[in-house]
Amino acid sequence: MLLKISWKNILDKKLNSFLCVLLMTLGIAIISLLLLLGKQLQDKFTKNISGIDMVVGAKGSPLQLILSSVYQIDNPTGNVYLSDVQEIAQNPLVKEMIPLSMGDNYQGYRIVGTNKKYFEHFKVKVTSGAMFKNDLDVVLGAQVALNTGLKAGDTFSSSHGLDAAGEVHGDTKYKVVGILAFNNSVIDNLILTSLNSVWNIHEHKEEAHTEEEEAHTEEEDAHAEEADMSKREITSALIKFRSPMGLMSMPRNINQNSKLQAALPSIEVNRLFELLGIGIDGLQILAAVIMLISGISVFVSLYNSLKERKYEMALMLSMGASRTRLFLMLLLEGILLALFGFIAGVIVSRVGIILISNQLNKRFHFDVNQMSLQTGEIYLFIGALAIGILAAALPSINIYRLNISRTLAEE
Amino acid sequence: MLTVSNLRFAYNNHKKFSFPSFSCAEGDALLILGNSGSGKTTLLHILALLLQPESGSIQINKQEFVGLTPRETAKMRARHLGIIYQKSHFVSSLTVLDNLILANYLADKELSKQRASQLAESLGFHELLEKKTTLLSGGEQQRVSIARALMNNPEVILADEPTSNLDDENCEKVINLLENQAKNIGASLVIVTHDQRLKDKFSHKIILS
């Protein structure tokens, strides 16, 4: 009955209640969305980073190098000679060097030339088909296979560059030999092949160019053959150190004494999150302010209606209601409004996540799909309830001061 | 049986009231007549246990009602008294039916739709049960508040100026209604009013001055 009266009171002031719920919904939705996105971004970023101590590549922005090599989102800084990288890998502090070579894509999915160590690094297994053996054999990341519909045995032509609109290498076709298991990491969105495949496909292209220009001599050709192995280029290499000592000495040494650039993922990602963090914090404060305004609107709404309902309250008191019971009834109104706001907010944030996820997936092949309730949202729930209770309690406390006789005699 | 003796009340040093003793048997009616400022409303509020008198006693069926704690007072009021205020007020967000049942709920009694329906039938507003109280006319509202006062089968019914806004015809009707309903449930009916038309209708009356 108490609940019924509260509920009817809320329905009786539809516009007021709607405004309170709307504000609460907005605040909760924004914070909840930020929580979800922030958590998933951080999850993805830290998962992909794990184990990689340093990235070497061409000179440029260190953040760009990390984004392109570790997360496969930004463009690479340029190419470097494999021999230079191998020289660094000779250092006793280096435990492992994983070369990466990219430059082509299929429907926007990057084709990355690498070796077996890359798979070992992610601990990913082939679920159907086999690992690549020959040139132009590829294995697909799980998400790629899902979205393109390619199966083992299919062939496709890649396009030059890293976005889908590049020029198509029509003459050579890649052959899918296997598909990887879901790894929930960047590898899900990659097409992987051997380093040789990447080199071959671009050599063909260069030959085609030179023939067109009719400006190549046999002498040059022979020279190129000779220099072949040493002048092989890769985009970057992921380095794992044997000990933290490597972190101290190697990056500075490389950056100062070679044509290469070394970047530390942990530092760059922290920098990125610091930059993002300012924006996220700002939005969170904004959302908290909106929630607070929702509380104020509950307060104003109840305060005004209590003035009108003073006689009603005195009447109920004279009919035997205890003051505490009426106080609870009014609190319940605040709680109900906060509760509706919270539920609506969580639903809106989930819808938002689905929309954002679709966008991210289209643009970056970056899938966010966490729908479960976050721990942060439990605090949010408590916060929303606290605001609702407080906003309702402040005006309702007057119930304890109401003089029944005087109020009833006034009219 | 309502027995009242030697009630005294003071708002402050200048405004003091002392009321005559009286009693009212079950099924009987008592008229308390007085002009404005004679302490009518004060007496009604004391009888309704909304004000605590300085001294004196109010007994319903030999049970003392003066000097109880606020919590006990509220409970006693809800269980033993039915009060009809001069102006009808309701919980505006609830329907007529819910307003009636609310009397049961607040007195911690069993919620009886049947009782509400039966009272609505005998007071002639059965078709209004599902309506909001704000949509009712003044006469309808008064009948609903009479029904509400009867919901818990009280031993004493207190009515504050029940006829002051009514024409002669309706005045007659309402008074008959109150008397009949009080008789039906065997309650003592106490009417506090300044309405001189009621003077001749009741044999048992007290005039305040």
UniProtKB/TrEMBL annotation, chain A:
<dbReference type="InterPro" id="IPR003838">
    <property type="entry name" value="ABC3_permease_C"/>
</dbReference>
<feature type="domain" description="MacB-like periplasmic core">
    <location>
        <begin position="17"/>
        <end position="198"/>
    </location>
</feature>
<feature type="transmembrane region" description="Helical">
    <location>
        <begin position="378"/>
        <end position="400"/>
    </location>
</feature>
<dbReference type="Pfam" id="PF02687">
    <property type="entry name" value="FtsX"/>
</dbReference>
<feature type="transmembrane region" description="Helical">
    <location>
        <begin position="285"/>
        <end position="306"/>
    </location>
</feature>
<dbReference type="InterPro" id="IPR025857">
    <property type="entry name" value="MacB_PCD"/>
</dbReference>
<feature type="compositionally biased region" description="Acidic residues">
    <location>
        <begin position="209"/>
        <end position="223"/>
    </location>
</feature>
<protein>
    <submittedName>
        <fullName>FtsX-like permease family protein</fullName>
    </submittedName>
</protein>
<feature type="domain" description="ABC3 transporter permease C-terminal">
    <location>
        <begin position="285"/>
        <end position="404"/>
    </location>
</feature>
<keyword id="KW-0812">Transmembrane</keyword>
<keyword id="KW-1133">Transmembrane helix</keyword>
<feature type="region of interest" description="Disordered">
    <location>
        <begin position="206"/>
        <end position="229"/>
    </location>
</feature>
<dbReference type="GO" id="GO:0005886">
    <property type="term" value="C:plasma membrane"/>
</dbReference>
<feature type="transmembrane region" description="Helical">
    <location>
        <begin position="15"/>
        <end position="37"/>
    </location>
</feature>
<feature type="transmembrane region" description="Helical">
    <location>
        <begin position="326"/>
        <end position="357"/>
    </location>
</feature>
<dbReference type="Pfam" id="PF12704">
    <property type="entry name" value="MacB_PCD"/>
</dbReference>
<dbReference type="InterPro" id="IPR051125">
    <property type="entry name" value="ABC-4/HrtB_transporter"/>
</dbReference>
<keyword id="KW-1003">Cell membrane</keyword>
<keyword id="KW-0472">Membrane</keyword>
Automatic annotation (TrEMBL), chain B:
<dbReference type="InterPro" id="IPR003439">
    <property type="entry name" value="ABC_transporter-like_ATP-bd"/>
</dbReference>
<dbReference type="InterPro" id="IPR027417">
    <property type="entry name" value="P-loop_NTPase"/>
</dbReference>
<dbReference type="GO" id="GO:0022857">
    <property type="term" value="F:transmembrane transporter activity"/>
</dbReference>
<dbReference type="GO" id="GO:0005886">
    <property type="term" value="C:plasma membrane"/>
</dbReference>
<dbReference type="InterPro" id="IPR015854">
    <property type="entry name" value="ABC_transpr_LolD-like"/>
</dbReference>
<keyword id="KW-0067">ATP-binding</keyword>
<dbReference type="GO" id="GO:0016887">
    <property type="term" value="F:ATP hydrolysis activity"/>
</dbReference>
<dbReference type="GO" id="GO:0005524">
    <property type="term" value="F:ATP binding"/>
</dbReference>
<dbReference type="InterPro" id="IPR017871">
    <property type="entry name" value="ABC_transporter-like_CS"/>
</dbReference>
<protein>
    <submittedName>
        <fullName>ATP-binding cassette domain-containing protein</fullName>
    </submittedName>
</protein>
<keyword id="KW-0547">Nucleotide-binding</keyword>
<dbReference type="Pfam" id="PF00005">
    <property type="entry name" value="ABC_tran"/>
</dbReference>
<feature type="domain" description="ABC transporter">
    <location>
        <begin position="2"/>
        <end position="208"/>
    </location>
</feature>
<dbReference type="InterPro" id="IPR003593">
    <property type="entry name" value="AAA+_ATPase"/>
</dbReference>
